[in-house]
Backbone:
């Protein structure tokens, strides 16, 4: 009896299909990972731009405070015309003084020497709080 000679130089169809299925699964997993990375990086950039906007608003407001005659006048002006990209929180921006017994800042309506200024971004919900003082 003569036996058949089988060629053993290539891959079988099942091996090729199994390899393609595994490569397809890996491609789907890696594409979802990379697409999430791209979307998350855009969020980080937007967040950074918002922080830079708040920082520049703070610098503009500090320069206005230095030029103002009093913190009371400055607060009125800042609330009426805030810099572009931010607003001044009218409820949270108050005059404060340090209470050593409570170890905290408390509302001060008489002294008006220390102003707690809260700046809000117009694009996001981020805020920035600054304490300003004016020499009397």
Residues:
């Amino acid at each position: 009896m003569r036996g058949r000679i089988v060629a053993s130089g290539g891959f079988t169809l099942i091996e090729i299909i199994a390899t393609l299925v595994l490569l397809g699964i890996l491609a789907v997993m890696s594409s979802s990972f990379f697409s999430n990375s791209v979307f998350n990086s855009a969020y980080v950039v937007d967040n950074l731009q918002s922080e830079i906007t708040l920082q520049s608003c703070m610098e503009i407001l500090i320069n206005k405070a230095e030029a103002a005659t009093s913190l009371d006048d400055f607060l009125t002006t800042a609330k009426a015309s805030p810099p572009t990209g931010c607003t001044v929180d009218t409820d949270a921006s108050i005059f404060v003084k340090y209470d050593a017994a409570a170890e905290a800042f408390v509302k001060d309506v008489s002294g008006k020497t220390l102003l707690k200024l809260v700046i809000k971004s117009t694009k996001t919900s981020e805020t920035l709080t600054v304490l300003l003082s004016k020499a009397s």
Notes: The longest strand covers residues 114-121. Residues 13-133 form one domain.
